[in-house]
């Protein structure tokens, strides 16, 4: 049986992950728009399917690290800085 402390920690972790995914999605979308990429252009430049990019940008899925690296490289942004910025935004939103 799970302790009350564990259940609370699990809820907090899940809530953080949802907020983080939304912030990362917004950052990726902003970077794409600022650079004038369509979904198709980013798909061609990164190799990540446009359906996957769209689902990431909508916050429906969190990108796996290889996809994030490909997208960041295509957008000429640091994937490490994207993660750090999403983390900072998420901490501030708590």
Topology at a glance:
Elements: H1 4-34, H2 39-46, H3 50-57, H4 65-75, H5 79-93
Helix pairs in contact: 1-5
User: Helicity, in percent?
Assistant: over 70%
- Contiguous uncertain segments of 5+ residues: none
Beta-strand residue fraction: under 5%
> What is the end-to-end distance?
28 Å
Please summarize the sheet with the most strands: none
Structural class determined from secondary elements = mainly alpha
- The number of distinct structural domains comes to 1
Instruction: Determine Rg (CA atoms, Å).
Output: 15 Å
Task: Report the CATH C-level class.
Answer: Mainly Alpha
Tell me the CATH architecture. Answer: Orthogonal Bundle
CATH topology title? 434 Repressor (Amino-terminal Domain)
Q: CATH superfamily assignment?
A: lambda repressor-like DNA-binding domains
| Mean model confidence by pLDDT | 94
Instruction: List the helices and strands in order.
Output: HHHHH
**DSSP, total strands:** 0
Gross morphology: elongated
Number of alpha- plus pi-helical segments = 5
């Amino acid at each position: 049986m799970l302790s009350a402390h564990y259940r609370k920690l699990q809820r907090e972790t899940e809530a953080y992950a949802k907020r983080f995914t939304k912030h990362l999605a917004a950052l990726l979308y902003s970077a794409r728009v600022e650079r004038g990429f369509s979904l198709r252009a980013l798909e061609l430049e990164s190799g990540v399917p446009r359906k996957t990019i769209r689902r990431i940008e909508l916050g429906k899925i969190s990108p796996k690290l290889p996809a994030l690296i490909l997208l960041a490289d295509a957008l000429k942004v640091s994937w490490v800085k994207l993660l750090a910025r999403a983390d900072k935004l998420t901490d501030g939103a708590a």
